[in-house]
Write a structure and sequence with these properties.
With about 100 residues, the protein is mainly alpha-helical. The chain has 3 helices and 2 strands. It is elongated and about 45 Å long. The mean pLDDT is about 90.
């Protein structure tokens, strides 16, 4: 299962800056999850969990395995955003779209 990644709403960035940010995001995401092949399945499961339980599910709503996937994705995404934009990122920043 593969995925594509696209940065959007990054109006002031040159094509080279956009590409570099996408590469930093991708690299950090893959490293955080352990391998590029894990991005698509973990993201797909995370999206299903969001749809079923919302952004902040209660501790007892998820099984241990579901909680592990949920927390793992959030940590990986946070690391990827920091890698792409730096530790001092602000609201309204560009967004990434991941497609499986």
């Amino acid at each position: 299962m593969s995925y594509t990644l696209k940065l959007y709403d990054f109006e002031d960035a040159s094509p080279q800056e956009r590409l570099a940010a996408e590469q930093r995001f991708r690299q950090a995401l893959e490293e955080s999850l352990g391998d590029a092949s894990l991005v698509a399945p973990v993201y797909a499961m995370y999206q299903r969990l969001l749809a079923n339980f919302g952004e902040t599910p209660s501790e007892d709503a998820l099984t241990d395995d579901q909680r592990q996937v949920f927390d793992q994705w959030q940590a990986a995404e946070s690391a990827a955003i920091t890698a792409a934009f730096g530790p001092n990122r602000y609201m309204g920043e560009p967004q990434f779209e991941i497609r499986i």
